[in-house]
Write a structure and sequence with these properties.
The structure is a single chain. The protein has 3 domains: 214 residues, FAD/NAD(P)-binding domain; 121 residues, FAD/NAD(P)-binding domain (3-Layer(bba) Sandwich), CATH 3.50.50; 116 residues, FAD/NAD-linked reductase, C-terminal dimerisation domain (Enolase-like, domain 1, 2-Layer Sandwich). It is 33% helix and 25% strand. The chain contains 13 helices and 22 strands. The strands form 5 sheets. Strands 1, 2, 3, 4, 5, 6 and 17 form a 7-stranded mixed beta sheet that branches. The chain has a 5-stranded parallel beta sheet with strand order 8-15-9-10-11. Strands 18-19-22-21-20 form a 5-stranded antiparallel beta sheet, sandwiched between helices. The longest helix is centred in the first third of the chain and has 25 residues. The radius of gyration is 24 Å and the shape is globular. The mean pLDDT is 97.
């Protein structure tokens, strides 16, 4: 079969690129190794984890805060298999939606392992070993990433697990050790802590969430400690060993001292993800990898092979589904002769704990390192009427602006609904708005969004109205 465009990988980057290509009239095919579309995000990442995060928060609220609202319940019980079943239904519905969108946009779907025979021919080997060869004018590599599992950590998919296996635990563990205090570890840690599991987090660095706003990270850590999570910062994992029913984690303080052993029901490895490029046959093309195994791309995300592009987790930058989506659209529109644009500084990041962390633009630490003069406005959620009404009083909103021009350089928040609130910062920063612009916009009352206005007022003239 001959196609204008062949996409390898059906995660958010791949399937969104396919939709856009279909809209632009390209004859398009998408290849997916597994038997469902959607990639890591829809199947074993963003969507299922958010389903469990919401379910666990409902359970936690019922047990701990509903009484304050005059709502009492007796004999509250946890049905873990039903929670997982609901998660599976959410995943199934979402993946079926992607399948429908492929049909709607006339995208041919090939299930099987795709690899390059050369720059313009891609072989697909299906589960039944049948082979199909696709001829492509252009190819987009969108194969995503896999969890990093060093040999010393004894990954066995049984008691030493990654996020993939964690999402299918149907019997609540009494104890879980998480290696890594990044987004994935903290989100899944919060799920099990809310449900009643004793959770311990081991982190090599001296802080959680490296690269994100320091104040937000500190506030989240304080909140997670109240939830019952124990943190072992500045600790190095020596070894992890799993048995049929347990796992043993050996670690030591980086500053020196005796080794510590943690016996646990499960050990979750959450130390990052690596680009997934094995078996792609890149050696049959001019595509090159960097020292971290990521595909090297240049202008317009084109590889060294002129008709092959790469997007998402397989190239440099944050491993975020929405980044991959933007890159997919960017490449397809470039191929179509359009002039698309991506500002990587304005791709927001979110941690879906509760409250949530959301961030866009530069942090204070980055601006200091760059020698940029700035001013900061900050407003606590506890001073907001809407927060008090809902009981979500933890956190703050921070607005960072250039000292002289007042242009917004960063917005960072730890707050209820931060994942949705951050878009005001993204939109205004796309148009290079000032903190005063943000402060002068009328925000509905009472809403969480008023905290953004107040933080902007604080950044502009130190005149927050309600604090």
């Amino acid at each position: 079969m001959i196609y204008d465009l062949v996409i390898i990988g059906s995660g958010p980057g791949g399937y969104v690129a396919a939709i856009r290509a279909g809209q632009l009239g390209m004859k398009t095919a998408i290849i997916e190794k597994y038997n469902t579309l959607g990639g890591t995000c829809l199947n074993v990442g963003c969507i299922p984890s958010k389903a469990l995060l919401d379910s666990s928060e409902h359970y936690h609220q019922l047990n701990h805060t509903f009484a304050e609202h005059g709502i009492s319940a007796q004999k509250v019980s946890l049905d873990m298999p039903q929670m997982i079943e609901r998660k599976n239904q959410v995943v199934s519905q979402t993946c079926d939606g992607v399948k429908f969108l492929m049909k709607k946009n006339k995208v041919d779907v090939y299930y099987g392992h795709g690899s390059f025979l050369d720059a313009t021919h891609v072989k697909v080997i299906a589960a039944d070993k049948t082979e199909t060869i696709l001829t492509a004018g252009t190819v987009i590599i969108a194969t995503g990433s896999k969890p990093v599992t060093p040999p010393a950590m004894g990954y066995d998919k049984n008691r030493v697990i990654t996020s993939t296996e964690t999402l299918n635990i149907t019997s609540l563990p009494k104890h879980m050790v998480i290696i890594g205090a990044g987004v994935i570890g903290l989100e899944l840690g919060s799920v099990f802590a809310r449900l009643g599991t004793k959770v311990e987090v081991v982190e090599y660095l001296d802080r959680i969430l490296p690269g994100m706003d320091t104040d937000a990270a500190k506030e989240l850590m304080r909140s997670l400690k109240k939830l019952g999570i124990t943190f072992h910062l500045s600790h190095e994992v020596i070894s992890v060993k799993g048995s049929k029913t347990k796992a043993k984690v050996e670690m030591k303080p980086r500053a020196g001292g005796d080794a510590i052993t943690l016996d646990t029901d499960y050990c979750l490895i959450a130390i990052g993800r690596r680009p997934y490029t094995e078996g792609l046959g890149l050696e049959n093309t001019g595509v090159k990898l960097d020292e971290k195994g990521k595909i090297i791309v240049g202008e317009h995300l084109r590889t060294d092979e002129p008709n092959i592009y790469a997007i998402g987790d397989v190239i440099k930058g944050a491993m975020l589904a929405h980044k991959a989506e933007e890159e997919g659209i960017y490449v397809v529109e470039t191929i179509a002769g359009q002039k698309p644009h991506i500002d990587y500084n304005l791709i927001p990041g979110v941690v879906y704990t509760w409250p949530e962390i959301a961030s866009v633009g530069k942090t204070e630490e980055t601006l200091k390192a760059e020698g940029v003069e700035f001013k900061v406005g900050k407003f606590p959620m506890k001073a907001l009427g809407r927060s008090r009404a809902s009981g979500d009083t933890e956190g703050f909103v921070k607005v960072i602006a250039q000292k002289d021009t007042d242009e917004i350089l960063g917005v960072h928040m730890f707050a209820a609904r931060a994942a949705d609130l951050i878009m005001e910062g993204v939109a205004l920063m796309e148009f290079r708005a000032s903190a005063e612009d943000m402060a002068r916009i009328s925000h509905p009352h009472p809403t969480f969004s008023e905290a953004i206005k107040e933080a902007a007022l604080d950044a502009t003239e130190k005149r927050a109205l309600h604090f």
